[in-house]
Amino acid sequence: MSTRKTSLLEPHVLLGAADREALQRRSIKKHDTAVILLHWFNASIWAVELATGGALLAGPGYQIAPGWWRTFMISLFGSPAMVLKVHITAGVLWTAVLAVYGVFGFRKYLMPTVSDYLIPDMDDLVWLKNRTLLMLGKRVSLPPQGIYNAGQKLYGLAVYGGTAVIIVTGLVMAFHLAPSWVVRWAILLHFLAVGAIFSGLFVHVYMGAVLPEERPAFYSMFTGKVPELYAYRHHYKWWRRYKEIELDWRQDLEREAAAERRQSEEEI
Ligand code: HEM
Q1: Phi, psi of 28, rounded to the nearest 5 degrees
Q2: Taking the domains of the chain in order of start, what are their residue ranges?
Q3: Ligand 1 pocket: which of 28, 33, 39 to mutate (most atoms <8 Å of CB)?
Q4: Is 6's pLDDT higher than 50?
Q5: Inter-residue contact 70 to 126 (CB < 8 Å)
């Protein structure tokens, strides 16, 4: 396998049965525990905020959730004012946790995530074009992808940008931090940012929890790891970089061991 392994690092080759088996047996780390915990905390807060926020939108022109949902939420929490209180409390908790993550995890988590995850490259643009052509029935191939594919990157941009807008506008609305014309703009921006994230959420949850070929990504949101075969097939550029670093690291270790051996032989 050792000579084949190096050749796998070269072009994106078709795998033989032995390589497939070997890659399937090994796994590589995709997510840190802190990122996994933050993701599920974020998903839980979204569930609470959508449930309460939907019930709060009750005007005749802009009601989103059905009437029975509003009635259910009000009977659950006691009054519309209590529904609003739960909405604001969950929002403030969310803001506080994200602020801690942003400040203390800036170097270790936030910056690497932004550079690896959010910024699209040329391959991503080709991927988006070819993915559209594939959906239209054309026969084209997709270029290799990094740790996240171009679709995930676009959704990531919406989530990171939208989250910042939701937090700032939410704080302005909840605590009347600005003149009333600014609060009115904040309400509009708050809805637009929630709408942008919410519209992609169905695809995100479908891809993450339902689509069989993405099942390893779903499990990785609990274990932090994916099988190398999945990484090789879906995120080849990331897998290759990972292997190159591993190879460099092994070669460094071997060089150090050889140098130590030589030194002790000279001393004898
Ligand atoms: C039941 C709900 C959800 C499921 C099943 C789910 C599933 C997943 C899965 C499987 C991944 C890993 C993708 C990969 O590694 O390739 C992921 C990542 C991600 N998800 Fe979700 N997700 C849910 C809710 C949400 C919500 C509500 C948001 C944001 C509003 C969100 C934003 C993200 C982001 C930004 C990532 C990138 C990973 C990271 O946190 O760095 N997810 N999700």
Answers
A1: -130, 155
A2: 13-30+105-267
A3: 39
A4: no
A5: no
Which class would CATH give 13-30+105-267? mainly alpha
**Please, are residues 46 and 87 in contact by the beta-carbon 8 Å criterion?**
no
Residue ranges lining ligand 1, Cβ < 6 Å:
30, 35, 39, 42-43, 46, 113, 156, 159, 197, 201, 204-205, 208-209, 217-218, 220-221
Beta bridge partners of 29: 225
How far does residue 14's CA lie from ligand 1's centre (Å)? 30
Q: Is pLDDT of 71 > 70?
A: yes
Give the mean model confidence (pLDDT) for residues 118-143: 92
**Which residue type, as a one-letter code, is found at position 98?**
L
